[in-house]
Design brief:
alpha+beta, five-stranded antiparallel β-sheet, elongated, 49% helix, OB fold (Dihydrolipoamide Acetyltransferase, E2P), 5 helices
């Protein structure tokens, strides 16, 4: 085999090996992010449930600057008792109360949690001052397979490039 062909073959193998590792690392990052979200949501399902009362529920609006459109969200407050102490919470979900460009969406959330309604909330046992009305979705756990395919595929590309099985077969046919 001439030296230039061998050099090109090695460069191509290195390129594929690095490309495979990059694909696997990016897939691994998304696997980690989805796993973290799933485990956090599963943990929230173990938090103790207590009765809460909605203290306030109204539409809040904001505008980032004079050129931006109005955004709306539910401004919510609820009270609960945990181990003899009274607390107040304001989080619909772990991330708070989402903003939307649609006022109707915020109004629908306000209607779902009217003032005076008694509802169940979940309390973080490590921090009883933090409670949520809705635990996070377990959905990330059901979609973790997709970025997992990128990890497997990327590692496969890297393995094939390093071992050179396909490249060696092509080189033998060229002789």
């Amino acid at each position: 085999m001439p030296p230039s062909t061998s050099s090109n073959l090695n460069a191509g193998r290195w390129y594929l090996a690095i490309l495979g590792l990059v694909v696997a690392l990016i897939g691994g990052l998304f696997v980690w992010l989805l796993a973290r979200s799933f485990l956090r949501a599963r943990e929230m399902r173990t938090w103790p449930e207590v009765r809460c009362i909605i203290l306030s529920s109204e539409v809040e609006e904001r505008r980032h600057d004079s050129n931006s459109p109005l955004e709306y969200r539910q401004n919510l407050s609820f009270g609960y008792e945990w181990q003899g102490e009274s607390y107040t919470g304001d989080h619909l979900t772990l991330r708070g109360n989402p903003w939307s460009s649609k006022r109707e969406l915020a109004e629908a959330r306000v209607a779902k949690y009217p003032v005076g309604q008694i509802i169940t909330c979940r309390i973080d046992p490590q921090n009883p001052g933090f409670a949520v009305l809705k635990p996070d979705s377990l959905g990330p756990g059901y979609s973790i397979w997709f970025p997992g395919l990128f990890v497997i595929g990327g590692l496969g590309i890297t393995f094939r490039a390093i071992t050179g099985k396909k490249a060696m077969n092509s080189a033998k046919r060229a002789d």
